[in-house]
Amino acid sequence: MAHHEHEHERGHIGPATYYKVFAALMVLMFLTVGAWWVEGMLNIPRALGVFIAVAIASTKTVLIVLFFMHIKVSSRVTQLYAVAALVALLFMFVITMGDYFARGWPPELGPLP
Amino acid sequence: MATTTSTSSSHAHADHGHADHGPELQHHFSTAAQQKEAATLGMWVFLVTEVMLFGGIFMAYAVYRWAFPDIWAEAAYHLNTPLGTINTVVLLVSSLTVALAVSAAEAGKRTRIIQLIVVTMLLGLAFLGLKAYEYSEKFAHCAGYSTPIEWVTNTNQHAVYECLVPGQAFLFPADKTTGASNAPTVAGQPTPYQLFFLLYFIATGLHAVHMLIGLAIMSYLVFITWRGTISSTYFTPVEIGGLYWHLIDIVWVFLFPLFYLVH
């Protein structure tokens, strides 16, 4: 049993790291609002705006999951489950959007039935 | 390490080596670390299902935003972006206080855990308060008042110029810059504008329900910490309760730009 106990002695995340991660999250929050504000004045492609917003939100999520939710210092199987959520989401989005596109999405705009 | 106490449970366990750990270790685990690992993994399995629950809503959002990008931009103009921004800050701070509470739990500082969780709950309540104000603003417009305050005090009622709550009375104003339009769209007309607000109310509503459950979990954590169940050797409930709170925060991290920051 002794080697099992040793296996569970993992890294530790302390308050100093939490404060740093929080500072980064706040910077990213202002960045996303700032980007939206700037995009309102410039005429950039709409898809780029969505990409920037989702990229910033994803970065925030990675920070929260790795540090606040301790995935960085979790066991392999827990890390696997965190990644599994992402993979399951990807399956859903890729297959569903693929089906929509294959059927000609978006449809012709017009009055709804 | 915790010593055996004279409770009836430790008496019943006395014959099979429970003296080296606290009463929180269940029979089917061989070590406290193994028990904590199982609890954490179990919570993550649940969180994956939660991701898929909200994922379905984001999926519907993606499908319709792809189809109606102009309508999305017009509709999002009617959401209260300053309040949404404040709520994002409130939730991010609450995530920090939860993380710090887990640190305090690791150190076995009970008073500090309770303080930090109470601050978290106050932030959670502030979030829900602002959200409730946003909702009531939308409902007040349907009732013919500019603000919820005017609705409550029954002053300044005017003809309904917009109603952004999905349903028979839904009325999207024709002029997005002034809000008050003389030529409104037909009430109850099934336009894609309603889809935006339907998704908005479903997504933020489900998120608010999760906040309420999170608040209940936090109250329970305050109670068991105050009772003395939580110690530096046993703080799994604080840790997995924190995981739930962080997930709620992550959902909002996506809801905020996708509903409030749209061009």
From TrEMBL, chain A:
Alphabetized UniProt keyword annotations: Cell membrane, Membrane, Transmembrane, Transmembrane helix
Its membrane topology: Multi-pass membrane protein
GO cellular component: plasma membrane
A Pfam family that the UniProt record links to this protein: COX4_pro
Stretches that traverse the bilayer: 21-38, 44-68, 80-102
Protein's UniProt keywords contain Ligase: no
Top-level taxon in the UniProt lineage: Bacteria
Localisation per UniProt entry: Cell membrane
Main location: membrane
Protein name: Oxidase
Protein's organism: Candidatus Viridilinea mediisalina
Lineage: Bacteria, Bacillati, Chloroflexota, Chloroflexia, Chloroflexales
From TrEMBL, chain B:
InterPro entries: Cyt_c/ubiquinol_Oxase_su3, Cyt_c_oxidase-like_su3, Cyt_c_oxidase_su3-like_sf, Cyt_c_oxidase_su3_a-hlx
Topology in membrane: Multi-pass membrane protein
Stretches assigned to the Heme-copper oxidase subunit III family profile domain: 41-263
Annotated GO CC locations: plasma membrane
Subcellular location: Cell membrane; Membrane
Domain of life: Bacteria
One GO BP: aerobic electron transport chain
TM helices/strands, residue ranges: 44-64, 84-105, 112-130, 197-223, 243-262
Residues in the signal sequence: none
Ranges of compositional bias, category Low complexity: 1-11
GO molecular function: cytochrome-c oxidase activity
Coiled-coil ranges (or none): none
Region annotation Disordered: where it falls in the sequence: 1-20
One Pfam entry name: COX3
Location, primary (coarse class): membrane
Transmembrane in keyword set: yes
Name listed for the protein in its UniProt record: Cytochrome C oxidase subunit III
